[in-house]
């Protein structure tokens, strides 16, 4: 543990400064949110129907909801398909 702390003290901080926010992108996101809310009278919900896949689509959908893209913050939600009922759908 001592060796690790010593190496950290010798090396110092090696990270870059975070990028500055781009106001043009912030304005674009606000315009997109306003258009979605106006066109759909609230949030747009996209139902994702999974008919058996490799789960790649689910990974991409979850990536769209991370803090970098934040589609849910713009009013666009993804909803999972409901499970089929056992009486009439099987």
Which key phrases capture this entry?
alpha+beta, flat
Topology, pairings included?
Elements: H1 2-11, H2 23-40, E1 44-48, H3 56-64, E2 76-80
Parallel strand pairs: 1-2
Task: Please tell me about this protein's structure.
It contains three helices and two strands, in the order ααβαβ. The protein is flat and about 55 Å long. A two-stranded parallel sheet has the order 1-2. With 90 residues, the chain is an alpha+beta fold.
Strand order of the largest sheet: 1-2
What is the percent of helical residues?
A: 40-55%
Radius of gyration: 22 Å
Principal-axes shape call: flat
SSE pattern, N- to C-terminal: HHEHE
Distance between the termini: 60 Å
Q: What is the multimeric organization of the chains shown?
A: single chain
Most strands sheet: 2 strands, parallel
Quick one: how many beta strands?
Answer: 2
Q: Mean pLDDT score, rounded?
A: 81
Secondary structure class reads alpha+beta
Q: What count of helical segments does DSSP give?
A: 3
Give the amount of beta strand, in percent: 5-15%
Poorly predicted residue ranges: none
